[in-house]
Each structure stands twice: as structure tokens, then as C-alpha cells.
Prior knowledge:
The chain has helices at 12-16, 32-38, 59-71, 119-126, 143-148, 156-159, 187-196, 235-245, 283-289, 291-294, 344-360, 377-385, 411-424, 449-453, 456-469, and strands spanning 25-28, 52-55, 76-79, 94-97, 104-106, 110-114, 131-132, 166-172, 178-182, 202-209, 211-212, 222-230, 252-262, 269-279, 311-314, 331-334, 337-339, 368-373, 397-405. The protein is α+β, with helices and mostly antiparallel strands. The protein has three domains: 12-97, Uridine Diphospho-n-acetylenolpyruvylglucosamine Reductase, domain 2; 104-214, 2-Layer Sandwich (Uridine Diphospho-n-acetylenolpyruvylglucosamine Reductase, domain 3); 218-453, Vanillyl-alcohol Oxidase, Chain A, domain 3 (3-Layer(aba) Sandwich).
Amino acid sequence: MMAAAKTPLEDIVESLGPRLSSKGQTYLISDTKTFSETFTSWSDFNKKVPSAVIKIHTVGDALETVLWLTSNSVPFVIKAGGHGNFCTIGKEGVIIDLSNMKRVTLHEDSVTVEAGILTDELISTLYPQGRCVVSGGCGGVGVSGSCLAGGLGPLIGLHGLISDNILSARVITAAGELIEVSKTKNPDLFWALRGAGMRFGFVVELTFRTYPLSTLGSDDGSIWEMTLMWGEEQLEDLVEALNGLGWTKGEAMGYFGFVHVKEKESDKISPVCLAILHYFGPTSAAEEYFKPLLSLSPFHALSPPPQAQPVRIPYNLINALQVPSQKHGGFKSLFGVGVQRLSVPGMRKIWDRYTQFVSTNPDAYQSAVLVELFSVEKVREVGRKDDTAFPHRDVNIWALPQLWYNDPSTEPAATKFGNEVRKMLQDEDFGSGGKVKAYVNFNRGDESIIDTYGSKERVARLQELKKEWDPRSLFGDLVPSLK
Ligand SMILES: Cc1cc2nc3c(=O)[nH]c(=O)nc-3n(C[C@H](O)[C@H](O)[C@H](O)COP(=O)(O)OP(=O)(O)OC[C@H]3O[C@@H](n4cnc5c(N)ncnc54)[C@H](O)[C@@H]3O)c2cc1C
């Protein structure tokens, strides 16, 4: 009896392998265990097992891979830093893994990177050269994944969104062509790339504007940082103080929220209010600016101990405190939503719900509710001159209920909690007029396309461009879909 002919996917190693560069590799995935052990990602939520993973090394590999996959009608997803919940595909398809595509080319006031580079890798390559770049607030997150959706991060108050700082990109299109995209080359696609970029093509290279470290307000590339914790009895005063700061100064940014920490002597977990503050300027100016918070007597009794004294840290360590939250594995998801201000009674309600959720589901103690506080003046100023597909320049504060649990049976309670807190954040007191403002990078996956891209007009323009550039929806058919 004749053996059945192999499907293209079964034949991928023999068929695609020889077309890749010497270091490019194609791995067939035989079972879930091998996949989970070899190819980790930030969250196991929603995670599927593909038929193969293709680890590419060069732009040439990327092009060969896309041509092979499209000509064999094999669906695929592109994985950069692996922090997206929807960067997943089942047995019907493959993952293109960019973890070996990280070349960096420095220019006088810009930098060109391959699409697999991670945030901290880029920061630490530029820092010794006396340069910095607008990038995300978490070192392990992929530069391309974060910037293509818009890109929030510590320096947006000084220089605009990450995507506002893209000068050009090289993109493999659905037609299998490698093209340049910039203000002057394919400008419509350039508009779409900066906010909805993962939906239009395979971005293989990006060029970003860089800045001298002196824009961080110090001679030595250092910045001011402080981590503080308070008990719930100060919650109302804290929220008042945070609102009072106004966050219109590009030099100041911070994260505030509710987390659980383990006590020093035992494994007992306790909820606390946490703030991580950064200031790009002299210590005296930082202490003056943050006085309303610093004067609220934080305590230092819990482990890990918060810094008792403010310190100056080299800028390349700005994301160091976020390391625990970027750890791969476990079930995690975000229910992000944009708000205009923090409601004092609203934050108390969220605290109550959060502490109740963790006390009844201790497996989920690493869950958190965080808000990101930056000045958005610059983001708005840039947007007035140069519109991009990023829709939510009007949002003042991004609020992030983050679920994290290890036992899949916690899922229903966790989802209920995430939904409820997201709903609370839409209360009138938070100032968003009952509207959901969803940033695609912080989405849970059930947000509508209008909530994600802000208006019917913007969605219509994106849909038109999708028809033009990716009519078969080969790239980034994320939720919510543009179709
Ligand atoms: C702990 C944590 C911290 C975060 N901090 C920030 C932050 O500070 N600022 C911020 O803006 N966001 C932040 N995010 C959100 C993050 O930017 C998104 O999850 C982003 O999609 C992750 O990018 P990635 O490359 O790591 O993930 P991936 O899962 O690899 O990619 C995400 C999506 O982009 C697509 N994609 C990736 N690379 C390409 C490419 N080269 N061409 C085309 N499509 C591509 C993927 O197919 C996938 O759909 C954070 C997320 C987490 C989990």
C-alpha cells in the first residue's frame, strides 16, 4: 500500500528548512509538553500548541518563511517577546519565532533594530553610547509588539509614544514583498503601523529616533526612583494626593496600585498600596514634586523591603523592579481600560473587591490592580501634528487589572473579578463618560473594535487599509478582528 502523501505542514522541515539561512531552524512540535518546555510565553492563558515553530535568523529567512507559508496556505503568528495573550495558534498553523533576530545598528540620532529585540536589550545597548529611546516599562516585552500597538512607557511624557518615535520600518507584506514604510514611503501604511501595526504585515526592522541621555535631566544618565508601600488606611489620602499631582510634567511618572506582598518572617500575604515613582531630573526637584506622596508616611515593614531612601539609579535599570511581573508561565491576562482621573470612592471599592478576590483565591495572590501615571501632554502635542492609528491620546491614566493564577480552576472567579473591576473603572467618577477606552496591548480579548480603535471613522480607515494590504487576513487577525 502506498504511504499517504505528507501535508505541507508535515513536510515543513524538509521543504522549508533548506530555504533558510544556516542558523534558521524549523521545529516540529510533537506534544504540548515539549512545546511548553521549549517555547515559553508570558501567559499560558488561551495558549494553543502549533504544529511547528520556525526560528528565523535573518530578514531573508523571514521572507522565505512568509512565501512558503502563504504559498502552502499555512496560517501563522509572529512571536517577538511573547507577552501578548493572542500570539498563539493551534495545530493548523505555526509560530514564527523572532528570538534570534536582534541585530542593532546605531546611527547618529536613530537606531535600527531587528524585530526580535526586547525592551531592556535595546535600552542597555544604547545606554553606554549615551543615548536613550522611548520604550516600554517592562524589560522583557518585545519592542515590536509594544510599539506597533502605540507603545506606552516611562519616557512618553518627554518624547511621545513609542510609535511616535518610529522613523521607518521594513515590512514583509501579504503579497510577499519586502517594502520600506515611512512618512514618505507608503505613508498610509505608516499611519496604520503606528497603532495597529501587527495587523498589516510582518515588520522585520524598525528605526527609532534616539535622544541623548541628557534629556533625562542629569549629567550622568541617572534618574530618581523610589518605591513606597502604605496600608489601606491611607488609601483615600493617597488617591487624593495622586490626583493632586496633576501629572502634567513630562519629567515625572509613576505606577500605583494594589498588590500582595509576602511578610518577612512567614509566608503570610498581605495587601498593600504600592507606588513606584520615577523622576527625570535632580533629586531635589523629584522630592519637591512628589512631596504630597512622600509625606504620607509609607511603612517599610514588609518583604521585599521598599527602598527607605530615594536613590539615583542608572537609566538602564529603570525597568528592574518590573522583573517579577514579566516572568513567563502561569495564567495571566489584563483587563486594561483608560480613565481620566482616579475616583477616591471608586478606588476604595476596587480595593475591597481585590482583597476579597485574593483572600478567597489565594492562588491568585500575584494578581494586581495597577494604574500608569504619566504626563500625556507630549503625546497629545505629537498627535496634533502627526495623526497615527493610535486612538486614545485623550486618555490620562491607563488602569490595569492584572490576573495571575496557576490553578486553571481559579479561572471563573478570576474572570469575574477582572470584569467587575473593569466595569468599576468605567464609573462616572473615573471620568471616561461610561465609554470603554481599550488599548489593544492591554486587552482581555472581549473588547469591541470601536472601543479599541476609538471611532467608526478610524475603524473604517483601518478596514480599508486591511483590504488593500492584507485582504486574506494573513497577519495579526487579533481579537477584536478588523474584518
Ligand atoms: C508584564 C507586561 C508589561 C507590559 N508593559 C507594557 C508597557 O510598558 N507599554 C506597553 O505599551 N505595553 C506593555 N505591555 C503590553 C505589551 O506591549 C503587549 O503585550 C505586546 O503585544 C507584547 O509584545 P511582545 O513582542 O512581547 O509579544 P508577542 O506576543 O510576541 O507579540 C504581540 C503581538 O504582536 C505581534 N507581533 C510581534 N512582533 C511583530 C512583528 N515584528 N510584526 C508583526 N506583528 C508582530 C504578534 O503576532 C502578537 O500578535 C506589557 C505587557 C506585559 C505582559
